[in-house]
Amino acid sequence: MKAIIACLLYVVIQVESNEYYNVTYEPVQRQLLDFKKHHPRPIGLWTKNAGEPVDIRDTITINSDQFSNQLLIDTISTVAGERIPERVVTAKGTGAFGYFEVTHDVSKYTYADVFNGVGKKTPVVVRFASGFQNKGGSDLARDLKTMAVKFYTQEGNLDLLSISIPVFAFRDPMLSRDITHAFNRNPQTNMYDFTSFYDIVTLRPIFAHSLFWLMSDYGIPNGYRKMDAFPVHTYELASKHGEKYYVRFNFRTELGFSYLTTAEAAAIQSLDLDYFTRDLYNAIGSGQYPSWKLEMDVLSLHDLKKVDYNPFDVTTLWKNGTFYTVPIGRLVLNRNVKNHFRDVEQAAYNPGNLVPGIPGPVDYLSCGERMYYRDTQNYRLGRNHNKISVNMPLYEKTYVRDGTPPTNLNMKNAPNYYPNSFHGPVPYVDEHRPWKKLKVLETNAFDLEPAWYFYNYILEDEAHRLRFIANIVLTLVPVTPPVVQRAMKLLHLIDQDLGERVKAGYEVALAAQQALANATPAETMSFRRVPSAEGHPIQMSDPR
User: Fold this and answer.
1) From which residue to which does the signal peptide run (predicted)?
2) Is 152 assigned a ligand-binding role in the annotation?
3) How is domain 93-193+218-391 classified at the CATH fold level?
4) Average pLDDT of 90-118?
5) 473 vs 533: CA distance, rounded Å
């Protein structure tokens, strides 16, 4: 009995001391104790939703008049409404605050205030996510990773939506729904289905190039901090002299790109589905602030007329030797969010959020994105989503009124129509804005050369090719035969060597799967479960 009392006393002393002694806790693990350390006393009286202080006798409702207990009514009536619609894509995510600092003079290319003035700092909020994972899914899926950056500039919010590979899957916005459906859960089984995945890839071979990037070492970066990110679209920039430039932005991690193999990701995933999220939070909480260099690949209007490829095609890379690269500045994340729902779940990023000097992309996919991103945010957050604190620009005066809260000051008593003669907000004339608009005519034809080039030149060595082929084989095993045959044909058309090696690996994997199905329980100990390209386990023999 004395031992038990002593043990309890020790625990109380440990907690009350607010010290960590010789135990090293990660910032993620010590969050609650850190809060207590910064608030030695309770932060105030608990109140009901309307502000009335809570009497301690109302905190227990057994054998009481529950009908008149407003605290109970507040609790029951609000808990069911704590969730908002989950994002259809990029649902599993995290984020942080930081700043962007201009390190190089790029006034030659754009008059955008955010990128002009060496040393200028602009606050940012960044959201990272996995492309097709649900909110409770795995960070370690072989999946597209995203990095959305919101710059709070003096001229409005600038949103750069980036992905972890430098090419996008398609260029026709009409395909957005179908690829989302095919890459998400099957409507009957509610499971990720590689048959639908490869079915749409073989019927729309334009997807092949981005698929190759995902099946390579670039498919699972070693956390968000060690990941490059690419806004993908070709942006039009305008200088103060009326000159136009066409650029592709790149965020290059200053830690250097690092990847996880499928086996490494499987080992981590068995212990921690939130590996990327934990790594980012702990790094910032420990003062190891992640950072990226922002640069842009540049083509002038004159250069544009000489290239022998479509520089606006988001499914392909620009050819080496046709452009030059210009550094702009550094993105640094130095502050974790205080409330995930407020700062990450409610954050709304829109490729249509641009600023003077950056007219933005001119391709058709970008035009489509500006529509469906806005529609998504209206559905998830309401039509006043830009009045939620994390989305609010530094300066805003509009003729938008009312609607579902938040409305904030709702422009108070200012005129609510334009034009008016009573001193409501007025527009200005942007003298530097280009007078002419570039019109890009695109084709729905696809070219297999980018995928061929990736296999032969971007995969830098034989070891990388072997991992790439193994990842493809792993995802083909559960696919039904007719679709597998089309996939094999497509791979053969891209590169004969690739097709033959994938076919050979596929046959070996099928044999291993059959052997496992026929094995005794003791024999199955030589097999283990590893995640597929989407982070969902399938059987294969131990590769060690």
Assistant:
1) 1-17
2) no
3) Catalase HpII,  Chain A, domain 1 (2.40.180)
4) 97
5) 10
